[in-house]
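Section: protein folds

Sequence with per-residue tokens
===
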Amino acid sequence: MSSVNKDWGIQGVWNSSLENMTSRPVLPRDHLWASELGKAPIDVFYHMAGTIPTNPPNFRSMRKFEAGNVFEWIIKLMFKRAGIMIDEEVHCKFQYQGLLEVTGRCDVLVGGTPDFTRAIAELKALDMPEVFIRAAGAMKDYFEKNYPQGLKVKPVEIKSLSAFMFEALLARKTAAKNHRMQCFHYIKALEFDAGSILYVCRDDLRMMEVPILNGGVFEEEYIEMVEEHSGYYETKTIPPLEEPVVYDPDTGKFSANWKVGYSLYLTMLYGLKDQAEFDEKYKGLPAKWNGTLSRFREGKKMTTLNLERMQEIKAAGFDIAKIAMN
């Protein structure tokens, strides 16, 4: 008798493959990574010292990281097929006198004369989803009309975001501070006048591009952050702990501090078992405070509950009147 075929599935294989990521060993070092700029100084301090994390990235975090890699790959593929990919994963370093060296890898350098006719044909041959073929067609029309002589070469950093974060940054037409400083590092180290951060929304594939310039406020915040890390490193001073709830001027909202929730030393520094415990304790509070902040900004009458929230905000050390002006 022939054996009966058993039912089969790919869920287990897929999930386990995404959980088999390897991470670089944590060893003492005397330089910063560009991706660390904007992260909690206390986490960077211990990481640079070679302290083994008590809370390494969990499986969900690793899958989100891989999802980001997928979106980055798709965008890079379009650049490559269009013939404007100059280079990728460009290693570069920069150091101001007396401060720590910063090193990192730029996602892509793009520019030159696009050939989107070829790109579209090759995307179709690869059986890519229609949305990317339409996007390539729109890019073809745009660049042929506005840049007939070709494109100036520039560094581009590709980031994928949740719809919540994408909307918050889109509303203010800005980039997150850690992304600004990371992109600025590549511009500075590679000696370009400007570059950009390319955001892709993971929920609906919308895209937003934020230009970053070499100098001005971008360099000021970059130097400030490198100086801060350098000071802690040189004096062997442990940085202060992060607050669990913060106000982010880039989004205009209160939020649970991702620098705490995603801390590699969450248990060691904050006494929390894992990110789930952090979320349970702090994730719901910002939404309540943001509702009150919105009513305050709009000049609406404060309810009894709103007044209670205002007291909570004040007790946490925030000046709601000052914040509302941002």
